[in-house]
């Protein structure tokens, strides 16, 4: 009978030792999650993507407007370039020479400061040589400043 009690005692000691270790790890993970260290919103990448030809060089998402810096790499001058961001108004139409860079502002936004922002960007332009109009779509992901 004493042999059975020794096996039971060893099993109980094993479970208690590892049980406490697991409990400590769970409490540590809970504390990190509570204080926001494990929040995935803090690791949100800032990116602006558009198809080849029109490059998104930089952007800033504000509470009332979204500013996008575009570079023309199409190989021709573009006229009537407008930028529309989902949830915001359309930017004023402007020309963009081949290789040139310009800032376009889409206003009338209702963004909350500090929140994450993800929207589609629609760029429309006209080829100055042929007169044909084109539309391209991309996306912006970032945090509202």
Write up what this structure looks like.
This protein has 2 domains: 2-38; 44-143, Sandwich (Immunoglobulin-like). The protein has one helix spanning 2-34; strands at residues 47-49, 54-61, 66-72, 78-85, 94-96, 101-106, 116-127, 133-143. Strand 2 and strand 3 form a beta hairpin. The strands form 2 sheets. It has a 5-stranded antiparallel sheet with strand order 1-8-7-4-5, with no helix packed on it. The protein has a 3-stranded antiparallel sheet with strand order 2-3-6, with no helix packed on it. It is built from 1 helix and 8 strands; from the N terminus they run αββββββββ. The protein is rod-shaped, with a radius of gyration of 28 Å. The chain has 145 residues and is α+β, with helices and mostly antiparallel strands.
Give me some keywords for this one.
single chain; 145 residues; alpha+beta; Immunoglobulin-like; five-stranded antiparallel beta sheet; three-stranded antiparallel beta sheet; 1 helix; 8 strands; 23% helix; rod-shaped
Look at the structure and give the mean pLDDT. Answer: 88
Give the class from helix and strand content and strand pairing: alpha+beta
- Main sheet makeup: 5 strands, antiparallel
> Radius of gyration from the CA trace?
28 Å
Percent in helix:
10-25%
Fraction in beta strands: 35-45%
Say what the CATH topology of the largest domain is.
Immunoglobulin-like
